[in-house]
């Protein structure tokens, strides 16, 4: 994502008891009708199993015998082997996800799942480039292939994921694409960045690359 498109991820709260709906848009009114495209440039559809309903509660770690305590990700190793630092991000007063301005850093949405959570989406987002720094590591997501590996690490945990799909979505609210952010459904990793075409007159990049990856086994303890 270019800096001109920093306002891409927006949360809209329907009611006090309803989970905020993550939307990816530029200057879209909170709660507006969905304008996300059908993703005609999709490489693969996300698995139906990760669909989730609006109004579900945030992910909560149910106690499990012998289970590791979930932790937020601190680093993502992309398929190329490039390590990307991960920092926790929230939303601004207007509901925009505060994506790190540094193209070499990804933001983990605090409202999502963590390493070790049994359900939901671990959502990481980063800019694809910037005018000052050029292309960032996330540019490789535009050419990612099914079966490639992404590894997340936290303070004491390690979790490997295997890419299952890459989908290109037109920018717009994603109320119909709850799998991107939902706290329910099978545990998965979702990586989001901007994708072409680029149209400065229309606010920059016109699509989003959304990569979904499934966990390989259970998380393990990191070596000291």
* Whole-angstrom Rg: 16 Å
Structural class by secondary-structure content:
mainly beta
In terms of per-residue confidence, which ranges show pLDDT below 50 for 5 or more consecutive residues? Answer: 2-63
User: Can you count the helices?
Assistant: 0
- Give the CATH topology: Sortase, Chain: A
Region (Disordered): 33-77
InterPro entries: Sortase, Sortase_dom-sf, Sortase_F
Keywords: Hydrolase
Biased composition (Low complexity): 33-53
Structure description:
- Strand 1 (9-12) and strand 2 (21-24) form a beta hairpin.
- The chain has strands at 9-12, 21-24, 75-77, 83-89, 106-109, 121-125, 129-130, 134-135, 149-153, 157-170, 188-199, 204-215, 220-221.
- It starts with 8 loop residues before the first strand and ends with a strand.
- With 224 residues, the protein is an all-beta fold.
- The strands form three sheets. The protein has an eight-stranded mixed barrel.
- It has a single domain (3-28, 37-53, 72-221), classed as Sortase (Sortase, Chain: A), CATH 2.40.260.
- Residues 33-53 have a biased composition (Low complexity).
- This is Class F sortase.
Short characterization:
Keywords: Hydrolase. The protein is mainly β and 224 residues long. It has strands at 9-12, 21-24, 75-77, 83-89, 106-109, 121-125, 129-130, 134-135, 149-153, 157-170, 188-199, 204-215, 220-221.
Brief descriptors of the model:
eight-stranded mixed barrel, Sortase_dom-sf, mainly beta, two-stranded antiparallel sheet, disordered N terminus, single chain, 13 strands, 224 residues, globular, Sortase, Chain: A
């Amino acid at each position: 994502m270019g800096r001109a498109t920093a306002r891409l991820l927006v949360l809209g709260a329907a009611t006090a008891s309803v989970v905020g709906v993550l939307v990816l848009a530029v200057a879209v009114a909170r709660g507006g009708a969905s304008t996300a495209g059908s993703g005609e440039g999709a490489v693969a559809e996300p698995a139906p199993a990760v669909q989730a309903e609006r109004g579900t509660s945030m992910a909560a770690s149910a106690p499990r015998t012998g289970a590791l305590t979930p932790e937020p990700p601190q680093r993502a190793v992309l398929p190329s082997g490039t390590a990307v630092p991960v920092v926790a991000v929230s939303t601004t007063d207007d509901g925009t996800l505060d994506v790190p301005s540094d193209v070499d850093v990804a933001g983990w949405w605090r409202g999502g799942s963590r390493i070790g959570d049994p359900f939901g989406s671990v959502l990481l987002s980063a800019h694809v480039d910037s005018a000052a720094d050029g292309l960032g590591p996330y540019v490789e997501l535009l050419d990612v292939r099914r079966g490639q590996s992404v590894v997340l690490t936290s303070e004491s945990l390690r979790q490997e994921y295997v890419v299952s799909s890459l989908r290109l979505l037109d920018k717009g609210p994603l109320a119909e694409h709850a799998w991107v952010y939902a706290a329910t459904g099978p545990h998965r990793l979702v990586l989001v960045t901007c994708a072409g075409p680029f149209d400065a007159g229309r606010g920059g990049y016109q699509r989003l690359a959304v990569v979904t990856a499934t966990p390989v086994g259970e998380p393990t303890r990191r070596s000291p």
